[in-house]
Structure formats: structure tokens, C-alpha cells
Amino acid sequence: MKLTLALCIIPALIFPGARKTMTQIYVVASYLALGALAGTVAGLFGIGGGLIIVPVLMFSFGLQGINPEIIPHLAVGTSLATIIFTSLSSIRSHNKHGAVRWDLFRPMTAGIVAGALVGAWTASLMSGRALELVIGIFVLLVGLKMFFQVDPKPGRDVPGIAGLGVAGGGIGWASAIFGIGGGTLTVPYLSWCNVRMQQAVGTSAACGLPIAIAGALGNIWTGWHNVALPQLSAGFIYLPALIGIILTSVLFARVGANLAHRLNARVLRRTFAIMLLLVGLRFLLS
């Protein structure tokens, strides 16, 4: 370990441009690690990695010296872009088991796309601090829900096409603001509508794709001419982070799924919930 550290530090001391190069290497390595963590968490708990990606990216962007006013927007946009790739793998897996209710997905998608575009626009109107507070409150509420295992009980039938479209619009709007694939919203909603849990999870995974595509496009559009963006950005999507995360998140989602069958689910869920509570509090108090 000492030898490895020395090999990393010595070039930075000798060569003029090496410090910047080593910093870039560490940043890329952190994105790879973030993708692995987000993928593992998604596989373990069946929720999108956005709950992990957005807070960690905000911290990482802060260390990189990116303008604080756009950090939350950049984290949300980048998170949504990563979900495009991870959701494809998840959809294939769930569809093989017949868990995707395409009859529900299709009417929800129209609302999701419109809602996600409006959500990206809504987020662009917020200041960096306001968006950070909103994300912090959401993370805090999800943490409380997971810790106390508050899940809605089936209370109604699946609505018609119009009702599913409206529900999709609300889910897409909120998901685009928080930078998530919508699983924390879609699964409880479908469960409340008497959809079996396996199908609720599978259909939620499918809904994550239009949420991510529309949300990412919305963030490209709203952030395209922002003068504070760092290099290698496409609107509010930071390409180095996007590439680093997707390279590892898909692979480690399978690792997380395997671990979920070996570890104590109750302890894992409460541990993750406590972590979310701490992250949410940090956002609110920083």
C-alpha cells in the first residue's frame, strides 16, 4: 500500500502537470466507486441508485470546485442520465419473469414523459440551495419510511387510462426534481392499487426508463447555456461522472441482488435508512 501511494505521489511532485492528472484519476476512480455503490444498493433494496448518486455527486462536485449554485442541478441531471443505462438491464431481468405490466406502463408513460420534462424545468427555476433543501427533505422522508417500514396497504383498484396518466405525470415530475428513477414513488402507488409486489417492482423498473430519458433531456435543455457549467458537460449532465458510474453500476447491481438473498434484510434496510436520515439532515443543516 505504501509503495502504491508513493508511486502515485512521486510523479505529482516531479512533473509539472502530474498533479492535475492525478487529481483527475482520483475523480474518475471515485465515479467508478460510486457506480459500484449505487448498483449494489439498487440490487440490495430494489430501489433506484439515484438516492445514493445525487448526494455523493453533490459532495464530489463540491470538492472539484464546481460553482455551488449549479451543483444540485448537475447532480440531478447526471443521476437521471445514469438511470437510462441501468434501467435497461433491470427491465430485461424483470420482463423475463413476466413481472412488467405493460398494460399499466403504456398509459403511465405519456404522463411520465410530460411530468419529467416539467419537473426538469421546475428544478431549473430553483436556486441551488432551494433544490438542495427539497432533495434533503425527500431523502429524509424516504429514510423514515424505510426505517419504520411504512408501506401503503392495497386500498383501491387500478384506475383507468386517464388516472394512470395523471399518476405518471406526478411521479415523473417529482422524479425529475429529485434525480431518481421513480421506484420509491411508483412501487407504493401500484401496491396501493392492488398490483402484486413483484409486478409493482417490475413495472416500476420499466417506468424508470421514460423518466430517465425525459428527465435527462430536460436537464440538457435547461442547462445548455449555463455559463457556470464545467467542461465536458452536456447541459446539467457531467459526462465524466456519467461514464464512470454506468461502467460499474450495472455489474454491481447483480452483486447486490445476490447479497440480498444472503444477508439479513431487516438489518440492511434499517442501516440504509439511518444512512439516508443522516444524508437528509446534512442537506438541511449545511
Number of beta strands: 0
Structural class of the secondary elements?
mainly alpha
Oligomer: single chain
Estimate percent helicity: over 70%
Shape: globular
Mean pLDDT: 86
Order of helices and strands: HHHHHHHHHHH
Low-confidence stretches: 1-16
Q: N-to-C terminal Cα separation, in Å?
A: 35 Å
Total domains: 1
- Main pleated sheet: none
- Strand percentage lies at under 5%
Q: Which radius of gyration do the C-alpha atoms yield?
A: 19 Å
* Separate helix tally: 11
Descriptive notes:
This protein starts with a helix and ends with a helix. Helix 5 crosses helix 7 (161-178) and helix 7 packs across helix 9. The protein has eleven helices and no strands. It has helices spanning 2-14, 18-45, 50-63, 71-96, 102-125, 128-148, 161-178, 183-192, 197-223, 239-260, 265-285. The longest helix is centred in the first third of the chain and has 28 residues, at 18-45. By secondary structure, it is an all-alpha fold. The protein has one domain (18-285). It is globular, with a radius of gyration of 19 Å.
Set out the fold topology:
Blueprint: H1 2-14, H2 18-45, H3 50-63, H4 71-96, H5 102-125, H6 128-148, H7 161-178, H8 183-192, H9 197-223, H10 239-260, H11 265-285
Notable characteristics:
11 helices, 286 residues, disordered N terminus, 78% helix, single chain
Concise structural overview:
With 286 residues, the protein is mostly helical. The chain contains eleven helices and no strands. It has helices spanning 2-14, 18-45, 50-63, 71-96, 102-125, 128-148, 161-178, 183-192, 197-223, 239-260, 265-285.
